[in-house]
Design goal:
alpha/beta, Rossmann fold, 6-stranded parallel β-sheet, 37% helix, 16% strand, globular
């Protein structure tokens, strides 16, 4: 698949590396293709390219948001219509930016008709390097109302070493952001490679 990742920081770069290793074409959509973060992300992924957001999403099968939330509005303003396109939101909103709405619900409002799922937000970015070699698979929670987008997000999560888990509809996307607060508390004890896992036996 051709995957456009908006943002090339810890999460965007980590997802790009993992998706590239899984055989996907990776394009970063960034405000500065020459920034230190962008160049570091590109250095790790053969054949990946960086461009302005509108160019990166052109022809992409999947668009992943991995931005700081403060950048959402300005980045969306540069994009063509995302109606009918699969969009995965990996973002979280914290501190003074906290609202009752998740970033995924913001995207639903800003990108009418987009096929949205939230995923890749309940881990530390360090897990993107180690997912495939963990002794107990890390769960990757995926939420949203669009079944196609959820299936794509769950397939991608499995391809890069996570155990995908259907975490419910769009109404649960804020709950996935809240889970990160629990993850951060756990990371104080266990370190940043700690991850949620499912025990169903
Ligand atoms: N860190 C984690 O472990 C983790 C895990 C899961 C989810 N998340 C969530 O994922 C998102 C990204 O986190 P991150 O750790 O990858 O952050 P990061 O390393 O700071 O990267 C953020 C990206 O957003 C871009 N950006 C920031 N401000 C911008 C602006 N005003 N306009 C345009 N682009 C802007 C940056 O571009 P420049 O390079 O040009 O600054 C960079 O590409 C956040 O919502 C975070 O909560 C983080």
């Amino acid at each position: 698949m051709r995957i456009a990742i908006l943002g090339a920081g810890n999460v965007g770069g980590g997802l790009g590396r993992a998706f590239g290793a899984a055989g996907h074409d990776v394009l970063f959509g960034v405000r500065d293709p020459e920034s230190t973060k962008t160049l570091a992300a590109l250095a790790d992924i053969p054949d990946a390219v960086a461009a302005a957001p509108a160019a990166a999403v052109e022809g992409a099968d999947v668009v992943v948001f991995a931005l700081r939330p403060v950048a959402i509005a300005a980045t969306v303003a540069e994009l063509p219509s995302m109606a009918g396109r699969i969009v995965i939101d990996a973002m979280n909103r914290f501190d003074a930016e906290v609202t009752a709405q998740s970033t995924t619900q913001d995207l639903a409002r800003l990108l009418p008709g987009a096929k949205l799922a939230k995923a890749f937000n309940t881990i530390g970015f360090e897990n993107l390097r180690s997912a495939a070699v963990r002794s107990i698979p890390a769960a990757m929670f995926v939420a949203g109302d669009d079944e196609d987008a959820k299936r794509v997000a769950m397939d991608l999560a499995a391809q890069i070493g996570f155990q995908p888990e259907d975490a419910g509809g769009m109404a649960n996307t804020k709950a996935l952001e809240e889970m990160v607060k629990v993850w951060m508390a756990l990371a104080q004890t266990h370190g940043r490679t700690v991850a949620f896992a499912i025990s169903d036996g």
